[in-house]
């Protein structure tokens, strides 16, 4: 049985299962035991642990894992170095594994695999699932559920990912989390609009515009929210900002869809 969690994916009702946090500051939590970033063997250990968590559904070849840990700067005898690094992670996790022996970093036939109890909570996985659930709920017009799941995804995705570190796979994960953040804001704003909360919708839409000034959906949602709250004059200014930003930064004009929304929400003033 999966551990009980509240709306934001945190333990509820006093029940604490095994939890991995890889968005924001790294943490492994079980009951009152916490293994945090300082214990996880420095930058290389952070990479190793995070990569294993991300790929915990499969064995990871040592070559692939070494590339994730050191990129193009492999040390001499990197296989031994990788084994030593995994041993340091195992030692750091000992306060957890004493209570949850099913948590193991297995190594056999040139592959590593993270094994964990089936009910383990992983924040990154919860964010992806929440965004999927929010999308499904919105299609079914289940607006309260849309809002709740979008908030879960948003809170997790905005924590960041291995802050201060750079590697192709890390950058790739940040892009995925950023795209998930965009979509969560879109769903949150749309749900608030349909629930008759235009002021809340406008707040979320402004955050989306600030997050990515070239993403036109933010302007469209913001104009709809402003019109719904009776501030069509501000909607004019939002559209002007959209046109200017797209022209100055990308040398393009707003899409026909954005122009259509603008004319729709400002029709009374045209």
Explain what this protein looks like in three dimensions.
By secondary structure, the chain is α+β, with helices and mostly antiparallel strands. The chain folds into two domains: 19-118, Arc Repressor Mutant, subunit A; 122-269, Tetratricopeptide repeat domain (Serine Threonine Protein Phosphatase 5, Tetratricopeptide repeat, Alpha Horseshoe), CATH 1.25.40.10. Helix content is 58%, strand content 9%. The protein contains eleven helices and seven strands. The strands form two sheets. Strands 3-2-1-7 form a four-stranded mixed sheet. A three-stranded antiparallel sheet has the order 4-6-5. Strand 1 (19-21) and strand 2 (27-30) form a beta hairpin. Helix 7 (168-194) packs antiparallel against helix 8 (198-211).
Which characteristics define this entry?
270 residues, alpha+beta, Arc Repressor Mutant, subunit A, Serine Threonine Protein Phosphatase 5, Tetratricopeptide repeat, 2 domains, four-stranded mixed β-sheet, three-stranded antiparallel β-sheet, 11 helices, 58% helix, disordered N terminus
Domains (count): 2
Spell the H/E element sequence.
EEEHEHHHEEEHHHHHHH
Give a short account of the largest sheet: 4 strands, mixed
Strand content: 5-15%
Largest sheet, spatial ordering of strands: 3-2-1-7
Low-confidence stretches: 1-16
Number of strands: 7
